[in-house]
Amino acid sequence: MSAQITRVEVFHFRHPLAAPVTTVMGPMVARPALLIRVEDADGAAGWGEIWCNFPPDGDFHRARLAGNILPAALRGLTGEEPAPFDVITTRLRRLAIQAGEPGPVSQIAGAADIALHDLRARRQGVPLAVLLGGTARPVPAYASGISPDKFEAQFERMRAKGYRRFKQRIGFGKDDGLAELKAAAAQLREGETMMCDANQAWDADTAIARLDRIVPLGMTWLEEPIPADDPLSDWSRVAQASGIPLAGGENFGTRHQFAEGIASGAYGFIQPDICKWGGLSGGASVAREALAAGLTYCPHFLGGGVGLIASAHLLAAVGGDGLLEVDSSENPLLDHFSGRGLSLEDGAFPVLDRPGLGYDPDVAGASDRMVSHTEGQVAR
User: Fold this and answer.
1) Fewer beta carbons within 10 Å, N or C terminal of the chain?
2) How far is the C-alpha of 326 from the C-alpha of 304, rounded, in Å?
3) Which UniProt keywords apply (predicted)?
4) Where are the alpha helices (DSSP H) in the chain?
5) Mean pLDDT of 180-194
6) Beta 165-169 vs 141-146: how paired, if at all?
7) Closest CA to 329 of 298, 304, 360
8) Burial of 377 (C-beta count, 10 Å sphere; 0-12/13-18/19+)
């Protein structure tokens, strides 16, 4: 019988930015990272990550919330549960309702799910990808977070790391960034491709009006042209008008939303974020449902490295033609906590054939950026 979880730690890191990163949601003035570590009675441990990019300073709230609720939420668990995310969210359901915070609660539960999977894989001596039913194989990746005002420098930086696929932000600034999107597309080299992400900037009519400037650029996909919770009829209307596959899912917060989105025919690419919702158990379920429906699974990720590596293992496990998202904006915490940097090898992102994630995050090496560290005992 596996030992129960007895200890949980929350590590909060933050990298201030000299120049803010502009987004549809407003400027990012810092890059935060929230890591958790769970440990069982035998001393075995696993790591997870909590999504915490928005709102500004939301990482402080999530760090405190995680420190308060995780010890009770993990009581009696061993890491052998088939779907820890469901167990934990059920335990925290009333709190999420009462506080009006289903998002932060799901993000914390997702991190715990990842950590418990990591722990279980380490116990078995297998990589996460193998635990999830696949093999630890390299996965194709793309460079995301390309800013309209910095695309040339970001292209060159990520090309030097082996990337040939790029995703640029649009939907804000003068002309909604469409002139810069055209300029960036004109600089693509042979064999390079591009996607664009509007981050929910428009309503359906506005999105359709923008298509005549986006479609000719040959984008692989148009991501979140309208809000994630807009009616599926609006998503279908944009999809039918565009001729470009639509991508979305990072802002879905329930299984029902994913099921409806997959069945709707509006999406070509489904992008759950395991650090926002579902962890590895929920993410794997959605990924396989999307693949069975003929869609492409491309995990969304924007954070501090642990979630990136866990997403790579999941993509390796489920297969398909999906791409791993790797942020190209300034974020040393992403490089550091990935355990290996961000460079591709032979055009793909390596997935280590070692137990669990394949490494231990170097929290001591980022101590100069640590904001807080909390530790809680988990009752048996």
Assistant:
1) N
2) 11
3) Lyase
4) 58-73, 84-91, 93-99, 102-124, 128-131, 151-160, 178-186, 204-214, 232-242, 255-264, 279-292, 306-318, 332-337
5) 98
6) parallel
7) 304
8) exposed
We find that the CATH architecture of domain 5-125+366-377 is: 2-Layer Sandwich (3.30)
Q: Is the C-alpha dihedral spanning 337, 343, 346, 347 positive or negative?
A: positive
- pLDDT value of residue 380: 75
Q: Which structure tokens are listed for 347? A: 């055009």
Q: What are phi and psi of 359, to 5 degrees?
A: -170, 170
Residue written as token pair 């035998």: 42
Distances (CA, A) of 97 to 64, 89, 92, 102, 136: 18, 11, 9, 7, 38
Cβ partners under 8 Å of residue 94, min gap 6: none
Amino acid at 304: G
Reported confidence tier of residue 358, pLDDT bands at 50, 70, 90: very high
What's the number of CA atoms in the CB half-sphere (13 Å) around residue 188?
21
- Across residues 173-201, what is the average pLDDT? 97
Per-residue pLDDT at 141: 98
| pLDDT per position as a tens digit, 133-173 | 999 999 999 999 999 999 999 999 999 999 999 999 999 98
Per-domain boundaries in the chain: 5-125+366-377, 131-337
Q: In Å, how far from its chain's centre is CA 110?
A: 11
Instruction: Give the model confidence (pLDDT) of 206-220 as tens digits.
Output: 999 999 999 999 999
